[in-house]
Structures are given as C-alpha cells and as structure tokens.
Amino acid sequence: MTANTVHGTSGEYSPGSTAARQARERLERERRNRAAQLIVLEGPDEGQPDETAPGRLDTLRRTLEEIEEALGRLEEGRYGLCEGCGKPIPEGRLEILPYARFCVVCQQRQRGRA
Ligand SMILES: [Zn+2]
C-alpha cells in the first residue's frame, strides 16, 4: 500500500455520486425557496411600501447567483472545495449553507477584509 499524501481530492462530490446528487437537491430546494421569496418581494405592492425590500431583493438576487454558481461547480466536480485554500468545506457547513464558497476560516478572513 502506498501512502497518498494528496488530501482533499474532489472525489466526494464528483458528478454522479450520491453526495453530489444530495448537494444538488439541497441547492435546487434552496433556489426554489429564494425564487419564491423574490417573486413575493417583486410582486405588486399592496398597502404600505416596504422600505427594507430593495436591500432584501439585492441579497436574494446575490444568493440566487451563488446558488447557480454552486450548481455549476457541482457539474464540474469542484463543489465543496474552498475557493480560498482549496481544502474541502466541512459537510456540516454545506448542509447549512449548500452554496458556501469558502471554509469557515477563509470566510472569516473575507469578512475581516470587507
Ligand atoms: Zn478555506
């Protein structure tokens, strides 16, 4: 048996695998939810104008874009890998945030820079 020093290959979420299928289901559910929220926010405004709507619309649109990008990464077999350090993003994090692009460490680094 030869020791393999390569960690974090994209094997787990390779296209066609069970993990990839589950991730896709999570992402598509998330996309449906966000799209439904978007329709509600963009819909005809009855009654009082909602002053927080423009900000929420922005956030929703950005989230939908991130979901699309995550679906694209899934197709390419790059899903679940941190864009900052290239290490696999912990599964628990992906369950909560299926479109996460960074691991917790890199996410905090990003936030610190902003
Ligand atoms: Zn990272």
UniProtKB/TrEMBL annotation:
<keyword id="KW-0862">Zinc</keyword>
<dbReference type="GO" id="GO:0008270">
    <property type="term" value="F:zinc ion binding"/>
</dbReference>
<dbReference type="InterPro" id="IPR000962">
    <property type="entry name" value="Znf_DskA_TraR"/>
</dbReference>
<dbReference type="InterPro" id="IPR020458">
    <property type="entry name" value="Znf_DskA_TraR_CS"/>
</dbReference>
<protein>
    <submittedName>
        <fullName>DksA/traR C4-type zinc finger</fullName>
    </submittedName>
</protein>
<feature type="compositionally biased region" description="Polar residues">
    <location>
        <begin position="1"/>
        <end position="17"/>
    </location>
</feature>
<feature type="region of interest" description="Disordered">
    <location>
        <begin position="1"/>
        <end position="28"/>
    </location>
</feature>
<feature type="zinc finger region" description="dksA C4-type">
    <location>
        <begin position="82"/>
        <end position="106"/>
    </location>
</feature>
<keyword id="KW-0863">Zinc-finger</keyword>
<feature type="domain" description="Zinc finger DksA/TraR C4-type">
    <location>
        <begin position="77"/>
        <end position="109"/>
    </location>
</feature>
<dbReference type="Pfam" id="PF01258">
    <property type="entry name" value="zf-dskA_traR"/>
</dbReference>
<keyword id="KW-0479">Metal-binding</keyword>
